[in-house]
Each structure stands twice: as C-alpha cells, then as structure tokens.
Amino acid sequence: MNAKTDKLVVLVTRGIDSELSSVAFTVANGGITAGLKVCVFLSSTAIDLVRRNGQSMTHVPPLDPLAQLIADFQQRGGTIWACPPCVKSRGYTQDDLLSGVMIVGASAVHEEIKNGAATLSF
Length: 122
Hints:
By secondary structure, this protein is α/β, with parallel strands linked by helices. 33% of the residues lie in helices and 18% in strands. The protein has 4 helices and 5 strands; from the N terminus they run βαβαβαβαβ. A 5-stranded parallel beta sheet has the order 4-3-2-1-5, with helices on both faces. Strand 2 (37-42), helix 2 and strand 3 (79-82) form a beta-alpha-beta unit. Helix 1 (19-33) runs parallel beside helix 2. The two termini are 25 Å apart.
C-alpha cells in the first residue's frame, strides 16, 4: 500500500528523565518543517513534560533544551494532547499544564489515525 498523508501523530510515554522525550519533540518539529500537521499525544510519565516548569529539567545535548523544543512546536502550530487519566493520576489539573496543552482522550488519536495519520511512538 502506498498511502500518502500530511498528518503525523507522535505518541510519547517517556518523561523528563528520558532523552526520548527530546528526540520525540525534535522529530515532531521536523514533521512540521516537512509540511505535516503534527499532534503529540502524551501519556504515562510524559505528562510531566508539559507540567509547568517540568520541561525545564531536561536538556540532552546536542539537541535543543526540551523547553525550547516544546515552545517551538507550539509556536509552529503543533498540537499537544495530554491523556486525561494520566493527568488525573498525578493530581494535575488543566491549570498545572502549559498553556495550549489540551487534556484529550485517546479517541482524538484514533480519529487522526482513521483519517490517515502516520504514527510514531517514543
């Protein structure tokens, strides 16, 4: 099958303790550069990436600091979704998260996939 899509969903389960979180947002930014509409869905410990000031704790040279990667992603039109049960289990509310992050269930991811989005997992 040779399907072409202009959408990418990046699923991230790793948090501030893992270099994969920086790699995920580097790849997500690259997707935007390539002309894709990119959504990032955060679950498990990845929720801490968008907790206010959480992202400032991670920098994996030679990559840009995670806070910058996330800010660039949002400024360039990327969408960040946070898993509702994962947010709740950490005792967070919408007010604890970065501006622009939406608490959205997996059904949003499923809808993007049904509409042809490619997926990557980190």
